TrEMBL record:
The organism of origin for this protein: Cereibacter changlensis
Superkingdom of source: Bacteria
Keyword Repressor in record: no
Keywords: DNA integration, DNA recombination
GO biological process: DNA integration; DNA recombination
Chain ranges of the Tyr recombinase domain: 1-102
Keyword Ribosomal protein in record: no
Protein name, entry field: Recombinase XerD
Pfam family for this entry, one: Phage_integrase
Molecular-function GO term, any one: DNA binding
Length: 112
C-alpha cells in the first residue's frame, strides 16, 4: 500500500511484518516471532534467555562461514552494507581454528 511504499522510500522496512503471509496463520510479526522462539527454546530444553533472533542470526552466519561459504555471500544474505560488519562473525572461527591447530599440529603437541 501507499504507507509501505513511503516507508521504503524513507529507508524503513517494507512491512511491519517479519514474514508476511496469505495463509490461514496470517502474518508473523517481529514480536510474535520473538515469543515463538522463546517457546520453542523451552520445549527444546534450552535456556530461553540464550535464544534471541540475534543469536539465531549469528548462528546462521557462523555455520555458513564454517561450512565454507564466501564472506561476500554471507554479507548479502545478512543485508550488511559494509563487509566489516560481516567480518565480526569470523572471530568464532578464528578461535576454533586456533584450538584445532593446538590440538592437531605436531609442533604444538606435548611429546614430553
Amino acid at each position: 500500500d501507499a504507507a509501505e511504499a513511503a516507508a521504503v522510500k524513507a529507508g524503513k522496512p517494507a512491512s511491519r511484518f517479519l514474514f508476511p503471509g496469505n495463509g490461514a496463520g496470517g502474518h508473523l510479526t517481529r514480536e510474535y516471532f520473538y515469543v515463538l522462539i522463546k517457546e520453542i527454546a523451552v520445549l527444546a530444553g534450552v535456556d530461553p534467555a540464550k535464544v534471541t533472533p540475534h543469536t539465531l542470526r549469528h548462528a546462521f552466519a557462523t555455520h555458513l562461514l564454517a561450512g565454507g561459504a564466501d564472506l561476500r555471500v554471507i554479507q548479502t544474505l545478512l543485508g550488511h552494507a559494509d563487509l566489516s560488519s560481516t567480518e565480526i562473525y569470523t572471530h568464532v572461527l578464528d578461535e576454533h581454528l586456533k584450538a584445532l591447530v593446538l590440538q592437531r599440529h605436531p609442533l604444538a603437541r606435548d611429546e614430553g
